[in-house]
Amino acid sequence: MYRNKKTKEKGGLSLLMEWAGKDKYYIYFAIIASLIASVMSTIPYYVFYKMIDATVKGECSVRLAVQYGAVAVISILIRHVMIPFGGILSHKGAYRTLYKVRCMVTEHMSKMPLGSLNERSSGEIKTVMNESIEKLELFLAHHLTELVLYLSGPIVIFTYLCTVNVPLALISLLPLLFIGGVMAVMFGRMSKYMERVNRTGGSLSEAIIEYINGMRLIKAYNMGTKSFKKYAGAIEETHILWGDISRATGPLYAIYVVLLECSILFIVPLGGYWFMNGSIKASVLLLFAFVGTQYLTDIRPLQEMASSLSYVMNGVAQVKNILDTTVFQGTEKFPKKHDIKLSHVGFFYEKGKAVLSNCNLHIGHGEQIAFVGESGAGKTTAVQLISRFYDVTEGEIKIGGINVKDIDYEELLKNISIVFQQSFLTSGSVFENIAMGKETASLDEVREAAKSAQIDDFIMELPEGYNTLVGSYFGRFSGGEKQRICIARAILKNAPILILDEATSSADPENQIEIDRAISNLCRGKTVIIVAHRLGIVQSCDRIAVIEHGTIERVGTWDEILQNSIYFAKAWKNYNTAREIQYISPSQSKVKMEGK
Ligand SMILES: Nc1ncnc2c1ncn2[C@@H]1O[C@H](COP(=O)(O)OP(=O)(O)OP(=O)(O)O)[C@@H](O)[C@H]1O
């Protein structure tokens, strides 16, 4: 396992620029464009002052007015070209960076142990993938360039005012002394709320996901929205949070806005006094009265940016948090031999609560073995350890003599096919869903796999055949049909090791034979582990491993296990009894009783 060291050392803006890679140059050029636009915005003020000065001195002429006018118009034109130009560059840089970050996070998550993913709620992951990464767009595409625009304008104007009259220019800055303090307090208060913002955002997303996923249940039990207390609670919590934030920062914002307009309180009386005693010219007084009292208001949006900056940095931190999570990484190639050996394997999800301990088993190359045991015995856990969804906490698992921890994780996943109890289908086309098993597969290959999975005829009858979108058709696939699409995917993947975890649970009498045929086509020539409660299906396996009391209690052929395992003998008897039970409706039982 390894940690992403680079992201550990950096944070905030520098980390964001590192993620942007070469695309950061789009952002840099956007900043330069903003800077030019900002300098251009000060030129009309300069022209204004020069015109007044010339008028007061009686030197103003039409020629001079036209010249100054042209300079002002050109500067305004350049500004209005530079702003959208910068916007295009910053958006290009931002969206390319967003794409990269999303790919990085997705790839990283695919290598993360399931345990680390399980520690995070689906809501939290959705928040990171969606909102946290979107926040980066806000910053890169808008805030950075606006920051330059709003800051450099006042800086250039202040510099120019200094060339006209230093004392008045310095006086115009007096409100900044207080504004800095107010902003620091506001920023600090906002940062304190970030942990709550993340938490409530995550809970709200989770509640929404749960609400949508549970829609069938709501309808089935006529529960209505009231029953979704979690959703209502998450909304209430969000409402309370933003109320608290508004109360904590609102008054400070009001003070900030008032302070920005305060320089007039100092400039007009002092400037007037200096003008009256002849220290400054009328043009200087007018320049400071109109420009010196107003230019600081340009920085008003900085406050919004300061608050959303903590929001953005929080997004960076959340993405970094995912990227810093330990991921699996081995270097060995997948072995040619596919026997699996568990030696003294132990595992716990929560410390102190061992699920498996001292498990020893050797599954031969090409052998078909079944894992049986009571519900909760640890069968799924055992197969998840072999496919390295989790790492063992004791002992080791070897495939072809190589510890699974040393095998390149992608190679490992490529060489193990798993068919789960729940059929996972994406909203894409049926073709795409099967071709997930082999990205380069042609339609002929996909159809071949579907034929082996006994599902080709059904797909061909769909309105658009293999191009039919599963998303639009999902509700109309039966459990067995979905299952056979997943089996076709596994057939196409053709991995040498196959795990079937309750894969036949969706089988009903109508498609039982088809699923059995599909499965036997899938298993041919592979090392297979079958986890099943329906004991009928494990009868054809080479051996059976009974998992009991947190360990592999017995291993043997069907006959051996039936003879030696009390659990299995009982389970087999119960299985047969259950198959013989006939469900009789009340009316049928009445007829039967009358018949007696
Ligand atoms: N992610 C998890 N976190 C904590 N405990 C878990 C987790 N997954 C499973 N367990 C627990 O580990 C034990 C073994 O679960 P597992 O799913 O492996 O059993 P199983 O034999 O496959 O059960 P079933 O036949 O019902 O599917 C159970 O007690 C279960 O509650």
Automatic annotation (TrEMBL):
UniProt entry tagged with the keyword Cell membrane: yes
Locations listed in the record: Cell membrane
Signal sequence segment: none
ABC transporter domain span: 340-574
Keywords assigned by UniProt, alphabetized: ATP-binding, Cell membrane, Membrane, Nucleotide-binding, Transmembrane, Transmembrane helix, Transport
Superkingdom classification of source: Bacteria
Cellular component GO terms held in the UniProt record: plasma membrane
ABC transmembrane type-1 domain sequence ranges: 29-294
Residues that span the membrane, as ranges: 25-48, 68-90, 139-161, 167-187, 253-274
UniProt-listed InterPro entries: AAA+_ATPase, ABC1_TM_dom, ABC1_TM_sf, ABC_transporter-like_ATP-bd, ABC_transporter-like_CS, P-loop_NTPase, Type_1_exporter
Topology class, membrane: Multi-pass membrane protein
Stored Pfam families: ABC_membrane, ABC_tran
Any one GO MF annotation of this record: ATP hydrolysis activity
Classification via PANTHER family: ATP-BINDING CASSETTE SUB-FAMILY B MEMBER 10, MITOCHONDRIAL (PTHR43394:SF1), ATP-DEPENDENT PERMEASE MDL1, MITOCHONDRIAL (PTHR43394)
Official protein name in the record: ATP-binding cassette subfamily B protein
Provenance organism: Kineothrix alysoides
